[in-house]
Amino acid sequence: MDPGRLDRILDRLRENGGRITTARRALVTALVEAQGHVTADDLAELVQRSHPDVHRSTIYRTLDALEDLDVVDHVHLGHGRAVYHLLDDPHQHLVCEVCGAVIEVPDHLFAPLAARLAEGYGFTLRPNHFAVLGRCASCAGAGPVPAGRRSSRRSEGDDGERAVEEEKARDAVEQRLGGRPPGRR
Questions:
Q1: Are the beta carbons of 128 and 73 closer than 8 angstroms?
Q2: Which residues contact 91 (CB under 8 A, 6 or more apart)?
């Protein structure tokens, strides 16, 4: 874990008017350690391993508070649960509808689209809430998307050659938890 990053994020939390409670520190620490996108349930498991006194409902409320304070954001990468990530590294998400690969791209790539939507339609774009679906370079010529494969997660038939960023983040969380959380394969 990068302690400097943790300190910078906690400083940002204070600057935005937030208090540094045990639950908030534990949650931000878990997000820094996860190094990617993780679900609220995965975060709850991580936090409760080191702070069993922090109730799951407190973690959900803390995630909402950290979103209000512009410290974390959640995004829907497809058909699965929302995932959370820290806002100290602004980016958007592209999800391959064939293999489920998640590609992070710089925020500024959406600026021209946001400007055109604002100018032409009076619409303010907030692209970070949902991923943009399409096909990665490896799958671009793969033909139609097979039924049942329109997902942000690898299907069971996937040969494992394509590394899905969300899967990597989950694996990192699971490794820290000492195994798979209940209900996961």
A1: yes
A2: 104, 105, 106, 107
Amino acid 45: pLDDT: 93
DSSP annotation of 154: -
Q: For the full predicted model, state whether its pTM sits above 0.85.
A: no
The residue assigned the tokens 């931000």 is 28
Q: Which residues contact residue 28 at a Cβ distance below 8 angstroms, ignoring those fewer than 6 apart?
A: 6, 9, 10, 13, 66, 71, 86
| Cα dihedral sign, 32-174-96-121 | negative
- Amino acid identity of residue 175, one-letter, is Q
E-only strand ranges, the chain: 38-39, 72-75, 83-86, 91-96, 102-106, 132-134
CA distance 89 to 85: 9
The model's pLDDT over 95-115, given as tens digits with 9 standing for 90+, comes to: 998 888 889 899 889 999 999
- Asked if 99 contacts 117 with a C-beta cutoff of 8 angstroms, the reply is no
Looking at domain 3-177, its CATH class is mainly alpha
Indicate the domain borders of the chain: 3-177
Which structure tokens are listed for 22? 């045990």
Backbone dihedral angles phi then psi of residue 148, each to the nearest 5 degrees: 85, 0
**In this structure, what token pair is assigned to residue 158?**
């996937």
Angle between helices 56-68 and 22-34 (to 10 degrees): 80
Packed helices 3-15 and 22-34: angle between N→C axes, nearest 10 degrees: 130
